[in-house]
Design brief:
Blueprint: H1 5-12, H2 16-29, H3 31-41, H4 47-65, H5 72-93, H6 96-111, H7 114-118, H8 122-145, H9 151-166, H10 169-177, H11 194-203
Helix pairs in contact: 3-5, 4-5, 4-6, 5-6, 6-8, 6-9, 8-10
Length: 208
Amino acid sequence: MEYSKEFKAALSAFSSTEKDKLIFRLLRKDKLLSKKLYFELIDPETTDDKRNAMEQNVEEKILLASKYIGNTKYFLTIIRKISAEITEHIKITTDKFGEVSLNLLMIDRILDHNNDLSRQRFDNVYKLYIYIINKIFKSLTIIKKLDEDYWMEFDELLRTLQQKISENHYLQKLCINNGLDFNWLECDRIPENIDQIMKDIKSQGFLR
């Protein structure tokens, strides 16, 4: 929404008391904005502190969720909730490194349970695997936009991920069928136009 000069001038004309009332009224309605302002203004924790806490949170919640892995529909619901928490962390802290590292960690911990996943019918794990592949694609598009100084750490995460994918026959085949080139699981081999590649693959009906 665009704000006119007149509207901005009217807001500026509010007294300090009126502005304070307006701010607190808005914050009560927007919890995410409230958390973001708290973090930016007075939170003693740094982005790294928040990311470390979120890493532990992801690991603990996936471990707890793993007892439901036999019901992949419910398991995926839990994974989506964990992903939503990662998204909230990113919106509050603008943690671009964490946007990649936390999502790759989430996938990695899911694939720690390859043995349980491999026992299930392909139809039952299909949506979970497509969700994972989409997350990998999204992570690759973000990596390509980040400073190369981060790449060494991402390469380590991607190597581990590739190994676990290779141990999961159905997931490996689904990655190939949906256009994920395993050569891209190395930062300097990610195509410059990876975001467009992902869009083209989706336009052909894949990644769904």
